[in-house]
User: Which sequence fits this backbone?
């Protein structure tokens, strides 16, 4: 089965974007070429799975940032909503997280980058995330889109490592442990 992997930045108070999806606070962070592991992470995955909100935000960037295939999970978007320029790179699905991962496994994917608050939350609830790499940005937003949401059970994590960077960013990696019976 394809495994899900998270690589996200969030504000110190737990938000991945402003309430309107804005990432201006993230884009203005000066990191002066620090290597936070993104390139190595991207090299380790077969493609990306994201939600409609993340897709719409990424579409607003000056250039499409991904070379790998992107799957957009949405109940409102369809293939006709993907621009001609992105049709060879992006596809839309309304499958459940488990059905999508099974489908990707049949296609030969071993590791999927799971991106976007609601999508990460759904994959965590369904036990489809193997590990999380979270980079805390030294800013408090006060409100916005949270990375984590309500859960119906505890999700145990094992801390793997934490690194601090001269820019003030702090990156931590966690393995998601198998769920225990209640």
Assistant:
């Amino acid at each position: 089965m394809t495994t899900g992997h998270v690589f996200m930045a969030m504000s110190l108070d737990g938000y991945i974007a402003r309430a309107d999806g804005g990432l201006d606070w993230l884009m203005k962070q000066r990191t002066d070429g620090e290597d936070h592991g993104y390139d190595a992470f991207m090299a380790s995955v077969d493609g990306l799975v994201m939600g409609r909100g993340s897709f719409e935000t990424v579409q607003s960037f000056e250039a499409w940032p991904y070379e790998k295939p992107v799957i957009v999970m949405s109940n409102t978007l369809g293939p006709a909503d993907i621009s001609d320029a992105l049709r060879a790179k992006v596809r839309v699905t309304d499958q459940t997280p488990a059905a999508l991962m099974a489908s990707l496994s049949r296609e030969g994917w071993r590791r999927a980058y799971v991106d976007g608050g609601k999508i990460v939350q759904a994959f965590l609830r369904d036990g489809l995330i193997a590990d999380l790499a979270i980079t805390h940005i030294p800013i408090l937003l006060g409100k916005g889109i949270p990375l984590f949401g309500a859960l119906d059970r505890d999700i145990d994590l094992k801390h793997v490592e934490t690194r601090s960077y001269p820019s003030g960013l702090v990156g931590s990696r966690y393995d998601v442990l198998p769920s225990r019976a209640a």
User: Anything to note?
Assistant: Strands lie at 3-11, 15-17, 47-51, 70-73, 90-93, 111-115, 129-137, 145-146, 157-164, 170-176. The chain has a mean pLDDT of 93. The first helix runs from residue 24 to 27. The chain has one domain: 3-176.
